[in-house]
Amino acid sequence: MDEATRVYVKDASKRFGHGATVVHALADVTLTIEGGSFFTLLGPSGCGKTTLLRLLAGFETPTGGRILLGDQDVTALPPNRRPINTVFQSYALFPHLSVAQNVGFGLKMQGIARAKRDARVDQMLALVRMQDFAERPVAQLSGGQQQRVALARALAPEPRVLLLDEPLSALDLKLRKEMQIELKRLQRETGITFVFVTHDQEEALTMSDRIAVMSAGRVQQIGTPREIYAHPANRFVAGFIGESNFLPVTVADGAARIGDHRISLAAPADPGPATLAIRPEDIMLEPGAALSAEVTDTVYLGNAVQIMARLEDGTQIALRQPATIDLPESGQRIGLRLPVEAVQILEAE
Asked: ABC transporter domain spans which residues (predicted)?
């Protein structure tokens, strides 16, 4: 990893307003973004992810804490003095300029010579696969094409860090999925540190090297997509990333109890009331199992079916099975197995 493009956020806080109207948008956020990686800030609206992105860009000044790029403290630097560029949700392209003129605009403002500028524009258009559109007005481009132009323009000055503020949200589902792959390709080919903001869990899992899950101005967990999904740090993360069942249990003697049913635990857990978390796709159908439930509904999902059921104590539980199985009927009792390796014990609700 490149030390010069590593980003450090140290105890960053941000408050808006004063007195009774003060809003704590960020509270003592500390994280490290490795140079040359694809790092995602993920969370619901109002969690602080865009505020943190604006602190990195220099559009906002932290109330407390520091922002470092490599060994350089950039906390007080204005945006135009940071080797950082931003791609906005709206793209912010110049409608009266051609594609090539948009891509070269920042280079022209930097005083880059015409020949060198043109060569760099050609290189960027090739990178985003827009060479054939160089002379076309941006107003004649589709949403996906405009996004590629915005990316090329942001990459042209060779920033050390590229910030992306929900740039795919305006695209339709099919194009959004295509651009997820394209963004990851661009990050790998350029080696630039990408910091991506989204509320879409699938986007974060698809593209990221590491993810910071945020809620209420704080980082809840940082890890790889696999770590975040398979081993959520708390109930918020488990509920926000994908789907989870949350079952009230009592922990004792290395096991969790749901009524009279005992479930062995792979890792130690504090005794007493707790919450058992398990993904719907991890629950197994097992005829004759000690843990049983009554089917209340089934939902066909194309490549899978979701079965909704009710345990004996009334707790609702969902499990996902291949679409090829024989669907159980409402009212039918089914046996369930919760694999030890798929069970996680979290704090009680």
From this structure: 7-241
Based on the fold, state whether residues 202 and 92 are members of the same structural domain.
yes
CATH code assigned at 269? 2.40.50.140
Classify 121 as helix, strand or coil. Answer: helix
Last residue of a domain, one of 219, 236, 253: 236
Q: Which domain holds residue 25?
A: 3-236
How many residues can be counted in the chain?
349
Report the 10 Å Cβ neighbour count for 148. 24
User: Number of structural domains, the chain?
Assistant: 2
Same domain flag for 232 and 248: no
Do residue 79 and residue 204 come from a single domain?
yes
What is this structure's pTM? 0.89
Cα 54 to Cα 62, 91, 219, 267, 326: the distances in Å are 10, 16, 16, 40, 52
> Do 157 and 272 lie in a common domain?
no
Q: How far apart are CA 174 and CA 157, in angstroms?
A: 30
Per-residue pLDDT of 327-337, as tens digits, reads: 889 999 999 99
For range 193-208, the mean pLDDT: 94
CATH no. for residue 128?
3.40.50.300
What 297-301 contacts at long range (C-beta under 8 Å, 24+ apart), as own/partner pairs, is 297/330, 298/327, 298/328, 298/330
Report helix, strand or coil for 342: helix
**Backbone phi, psi, residue 104, to 5°:** -85, 0
Out of 76-80, 83-87, 258-262, which region has the weakest mean confidence (pLDDT)? 258-262
pLDDT in tens, 139-171: 899 888 898 899 999 999 999 999 999 988 878
